[in-house]
Backbone:
C-alpha cells in the first residue's frame, strides 16, 4: 500500500457526523446504514443549487466555482466543496486560465440555523485545509450559509481549529481501521437523528444484566 493510496481516504463530510455523534458516523461510514428523514431531504434540496460540478461563474473581481472536488493527503480525506469563491487579490495565488492572483474562500451550505456544537465548523475547516494543501496557500476565513436564516456566518480558520480537525480525523481513521462502532451517551439530540430506528438509543441506556446482578448482589 502506498503512503497516499486514496482508496483508503475517508469522506471529508463524515467529520460533521463524527463531531455530532461518533456512533452515527460509524453506522453510516463503517456499517453502511442510512435512513432518510425530513432534515436529510431538506439538506439534499438545498445542495441541489450548488452541486453543479466545475461550474464557474465570473462576477467582477470574483470567480465562483461550485462542487469543487478536494482532498488532503495529510488528513487522508476527500470530498466536495459546495462553493469556493476566488477573490482577486495581489497577495493571492495564480489560477490556471485566469489573469491575476486570487484568495480562495470556501463556503458550505447548510439547512437550518447555526448549531450549538462545532460539527459544521470542523467540516468547513477541513475543507479549508484541503484547499490549503492543494493550492499551496493559507486560508484565513470561510463561511457557512444557513438556509433558515438566509445569511453567511463567518468562520476564522485558526491553528487551534486545524489541530482539532487533525485530531478528529486521526480518531476517525482508527475507528475505521478497527471497524469499531462505539456506544455513546444518548440525549434529546437523538430524536432528530435519521438513524434513530437503526441505532436504538433506548437500548444503549439499558443496564447490562451482568452489571445489574453485580449491583443487586452487593
Residues:
Amino acid at each position: 500500500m502506498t503512503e497516499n493510496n486514496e482508496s483508503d481516504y475517508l469522506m471529508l463530510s463524515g467529520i460533521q457526523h463524527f463531531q455530532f455523534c461518533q456512533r452515527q458516523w460509524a453506522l453510516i461510514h463503517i456499517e453502511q446504514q442510512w435512513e432518510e428523514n425530513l432534515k436529510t431531504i431538506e439538506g439534499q434540496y438545498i445542495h441541489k443549487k450548488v452541486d453543479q460540478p466545475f461550474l464557474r461563474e465570473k462576477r467582477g473581481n470574483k470567480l465562483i466555482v461550485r462542487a469543487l472536488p478536494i482532498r488532503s493527503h495529510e488528513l487522508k480525506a476527500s470530498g466536495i466543496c459546495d462553493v469556493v469563491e476566488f477573490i482577486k487579490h495581489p497577495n493571492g495565488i495564480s489560477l490556471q486560465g485566469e489573469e491575476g492572483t486570487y484568495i480562495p474562500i470556501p463556503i458550505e451550505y447548510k439547512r437550518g440555523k447555526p448549531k450549538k456544537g462545532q460539527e459544521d465548523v470542523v467540516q468547513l475547516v477541513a475543507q479549508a485545509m484541503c484547499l490549503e494543501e492543494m493550492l499551496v496557500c493559507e486560508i484565513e476565513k470561510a463561511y457557512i450559509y444557513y438556509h433558515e436564516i438566509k445569511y453567511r456566518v463567518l468562520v476564522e480558520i485558526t491553528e487551534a481549529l486545524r489541530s482539532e480537525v487533525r485530531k478528529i480525523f486521526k480518531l476517525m481513521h482508527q475507528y475505521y481501521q478497527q471497524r469499531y462502532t462505539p456506544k455513546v451517551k444518548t440525549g434529546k439530540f437523538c430524536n432528530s437523528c435519521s438513524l434513530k430506528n437503526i441505532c436504538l438509543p433506548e437500548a444503549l441506556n439499558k443496564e447490562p444484566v451482568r452489571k445489574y446482578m453485580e449491583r443487586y448482589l452487593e
